[in-house]
Amino acid sequence: MVEDAGSGLAVTQLLRRGGFGYLRSRMRSFCELARHMPVLLLTDLDAEECPATLIEDWSRRDAIPEQLLFRVAVRQVESWLLADRDGMARLLKVSVRQLPPDPDALPDAKRSLLQLAQRAPRAIREDLVAETGATASQGLGYNSVLSNFVRTSWDPSQAVHRSNSLARAYVGERTVGNGLIGRDIMTSPKSLIINSPYDPPSRRCRKRLRYFLQRDPEALGAVLHILLRVIEARLRQRSGCARGRLGAVSLCSSALAAR
User: So what's the pLDDT on residue 236?
Assistant: First the structure.
């Protein structure tokens, strides 16, 4: 994912021991490490209220270093995998139409993936789905199959169009990689503020991106996708038309962006 984001960064070390409990307990260590080099911290939102609440809880309201890229998969990292509908459909040998249109909105993306795996060919199904009576929620080959899928088939450039949380992670990686996160952006009075549709009004997850968006058309495209998805969700909510088709075209001129 780091390489595909075009951030110019490379992964030199993986730290993973016992899941989110280990990550949370080492939060202060990661902050200290990020004062010297970029650090990507990735976890699931699960049942937490919103990403901002989780980040605030983990950081204990301490300032997070600029080079610590703390990203939260809404609500599980499986939602990012499901967002590549074509790739996942090929893996499970199911129709693309059976894949969820908005994986970030799933309350349990892992369960949804396992339900789809029930329809997969026997070899894939036995790896992903736990045997009847097993204590584990997934099959013995679950991690190896999905890890191989990520390495060889998953297309994040397509997945970002259906996962707002993944799109935000991509924008953040490009920003850190190009050295564009800093005081000038955070204090700009004309900063662009993007709010996630999953954030409660009282706890808005903010990203000031104006400086960066003027210089990276791909980042601008990713943010526009997030914005249009928010508008679409609101239109559907207001109109009561859950299945209607909506379309939009956005035009951005370099002269306008420079203002």
Answer: 67
